[in-house]
Amino acid sequence: MSQYFELHPDDPQPRLLKQAAQILHGGGICAVPTDSSYALVCHLDDKAAAEQLRRIRQVDEKHHLTLLCRDLSELASYARVDNRQYRLLKLATPGPFTFILEATKEVPRRLSHPSRRTIGLRVPEHRVTQALLEQLGQPLLATTLILPGEEEPLNDPQEIRERLQKQVKAVLDAGACPMAPTTVIDLSGDEPALVRQGRGDASALGLEL
């Protein structure tokens, strides 16, 4: 049975965040709220947990997992960012955007795209997620909580617990999230490319599909 933490969305309880961080350090997978939808997260350095993330979602190694970072300075430790890319990132973070960037050597090779050596990164704008990242002291590996064969992310923490109680160690309930995935922007090429229009307004960054 998954542990179930009811967190205040604006002022999450440190005691519960510490317990969730301990679960992640121990190799567990958690379902957490973000500013786009609920996500599945695990410790960055836990190979078995990352493989479990992919099994739950039924995606292969070519599917970009995402690093959730606290801020732009942390993001820059895991991705190569030039001045042009940085200006765009500064406009869009924190917020519901995922950026595909060239991974640095700080990112384990097994986590980046096998042929492109790229990784998805984002800085979420959600108090609970940010507080959990602060408690953990490093990025989290994440994927949107969309189950195989479904098109919409799960949004009800109770339903997440019922459906995934044998696969995740904890559910962090901070209420419903927007039921929309992030907007995905590929910055690994010569020009920014809008891959998916989601909750983030790409037109505010000068990009259109």
From TrEMBL:
Domain YrdC-like residues, every copy: 14-200
GO molecular function: double-stranded RNA binding
Domain of life of the source: Bacteria
NCBIfam families (alphabetical): L-threonylcarbamoyladenylate synthase
PANTHER family: DHBP SYNTHASE RIBB-LIKE ALPHA/BETA DOMAIN-CONTAINING PROTEIN, THREONYLCARBAMOYL-AMP SYNTHASE
Protein name: Threonylcarbamoyl-AMP synthase
